[in-house]
Amino acid sequence: MHLDSLKVKNFRILEGVEIDRLGHVNLIVGKNNSGKSTILEALIRKQQ
Questions:
Q1: Which residues are within 8 A (CB) of 4 and not within 5 positions of it... i.e. 6 or more apart?
Q2: Which has the closest alpha carbon to 29: 39, 20, 21, 15?
Q3: Contact 13, 33 (CB under 8 A)
Q4: DSSP letters for the chain
Q5: What does the pLDDT read at residue 36?
Q6: What is the pLDDT of residues 1-48, one digit of tens each?
Q7: Which pLDDT does position 35 carry in this prediction?
Q8: How far apart are CA 17 and CA 13, in angstroms?
Q9: Can you name the residues that pair with 7 across neighbouring β-strands?
Q10: C-alpha angle with apex 30: 26 to 33, nearest 5 degrees?
Q11: Ramachandran region, residue 21 (left: φ > 0; alpha: ψ -120 to 50; beta: rest)
């Protein structure tokens, strides 16, 4: 799957996240309970 950008609204802990300019390799980094796994779960649900 190739994405250019990602928008997530009102999904679990994420109220409104917009990520632009996604490349071929992306890292999701952050503190515990900041929504890293939630972003991945949103991508998986969108793909299904």
A1: 20, 21, 22
A2: 39
A3: yes
A4: ---S-EEEEEETTEEEEEE----SS------TTSSHHHHHHHHHHHH-
A5: 93
A6: 788 888 999 999 999 989 898 888 788 999 999 999 999 999 888 888
A7: 92
A8: 10
A9: 18
A10: 125
A11: left
